[in-house]
Amino acid sequence: MKITSERKPDSQVLLEIEVDPERLQKSMDQAYRRIVGKYRIPGFRPGKAPRIMFERYVGRETLLREALETLVPEVYDEAVKDQSLDPIDQPQFEIPEVEPLRIKATVPIRPTLDLKDYRSIRVEREEPAAVSDEVEQNLVDLRRRYATVEPVERPVQPGDIVRLDISTRSGNMELLSETYDDLRVTAQDTNGLPGLLEKIPGSEKGKSYDFEVEVPETDPDKTVAGKTVVYHVDIKEVKEEKIPEPTDDFAREVGEGFDSFAALRERVESDVRKHSENAAEREFEQKVLDTLIEQAGIEYPLVLIEREIDHIISEQTGGRSLASLAIALRGAGRTEQEFRDELRPAAKQRVERSLVLTELATGEGLAVDADDVEAELDRLSGPIAPQNERRREMFDTPTGREFIDRTLLTRKVYQRLRDIADGKEVPPPPEKAGPAEAATPITDSVEPVAQSAGSEPVTNDESGMAKNEESTIKGRDTAGGDQDKLHDVRAAEAAPREA
Fold it and tell me: Cβ distance 460 to 493 under 8 Å?
């Protein structure tokens, strides 16, 4: 067997394999013995027809195809070992000739990275954003979460909560026929009902209305973009949201309770400022990482991007089947390929960031030991209590420990990146003592900014790191399949209470 190899762009190797005629004949003999019993050849008992008669009856191509199904993988594996290749996915085969048998295999191999002089990188920090406006908005949102709703006998106003029946059509096509028990007259709640936010104010309880809306060509819903949509609306009830006044009595009802509204404001301001500082830190980290990627030499097989697109689709669809995704895309007038192409830039960024972070961890000798994981388990589970013991049991699984290991390593890598970009003194990289073992892959989607497991914040963002990690672990255990790319899970806001 003759084997030649040629390095190709994007971390690929082209193998050309020429198989000896004797080996092909031997493989065809084996194929004949495997399948002869599956055919009825006139004049012969099942499995007893000579090969020459078998080929005459079923065709040489059938026998050759059966032989190649076994022979091609065999010779490919031998060629990979002979050339000391390290494939990361299945090859693409081409058979330009059968006699003599020549096989071409394009093999995706491991990425190659050169981070160059990354320790010389310096990035200027920016000040965290001002928080005064955000504090006021958070206080308003917090009061709204404790609001009650009361029926009113007046026309609909923006911000009201309406119970109504809606049907829509475009031309002769019916688009929607629904009953909404609590439709808030806001841009967020009427998203997907183009033009309704502008038409419904002034409507009265017990009356029916017909609206015509010219939907812009730019509307994301391709089924109505550029068309006329006709609404028929029956107003059943109008309710008004009653937001509590910003008083000390209100502050005592919030969360664990505050002595005064001023104390509540102070806590909200502290949480918002911390969030702003973390956002600035995250932005700084991404600038440093992007600078590192720009100067690095990175080559990797494009199949990694396709894998990452699959990860993103799984995240966005909650692990739904491809068939259900295809149905949903057809309903929106889109194809699966269009959807994948839209995700490609984000997938490319994820792949490159993950590769660079993993290479940096290896080059800097960063690692997580068992004591680190145990300490994080203790932190996540909190003080000894029955509910915290149950939380520890949930985290203390192979999946949970793997996630914690990757999270802690990600934190260490980002901390090293921050120190380098700030010009701080860092330990010298370890000496290379030989071929490095494969490092734990680092993903860019695990939050790197250090967070404490302190008291629950009272701002609009109430997730907290422990809650995020608990939700993520549950998602990994129940979604099925490989879920390496992790995402934050945000707590839902409480709904207004009826008066």
Answer: yes
Q: Give the domain ranges of the chain.
A: 2-110, 148-242, 302-498
Report d(CA 333, CA 328) in Å as an integer.
Answer: 9
148-242 maps to which CATH number? 3.10.50.30
E strand segments, 353-498: 497-498
Q: How confident is the model at residue 245 (pLDDT cuts 50, 70, 90)?
A: very high
Reported as a single tens digit per residue, the pLDDT across 89-146 is: 999 999 999 888 999 999 999 999 999 999 999 999 998 888 899 999 999 999 989 9
CA distance 59 to 383: 75
The phi-psi region of residue 497 (left if phi > 0; otherwise alpha if psi is between -120 and 50; otherwise beta) is: beta
Contact between residue 85 and residue 107 where contact means Cβ atoms under 8 Å apart: yes
Q: What is the mean pLDDT of residues 234-252?
A: 93
Q: Do 63 and 15 meet the contact criterion of CB atoms below 8 Å apart?
A: no
**Prediction pTM value:** 0.66
Tell me the Ramachandran region of residue 101: left when phi exceeds 0, alpha when psi lies from -120 to 50, beta otherwise.
beta
Q: Work out whether strand 208-214 and strand 173-184 pair parallel, antiparallel, or are unpaired.
A: unpaired
Query: Across-strand partners of 298?
Result: 113
Residue with token string 């907290």: 464
2-110: CATH, from 3.30.70.1050, 2.130.10.120, 3.30.365.10, 3.30.420.40: 3.30.70.1050
| Residue count of the chain | 499
Residue 362 parent element (H or E): helix 336-363
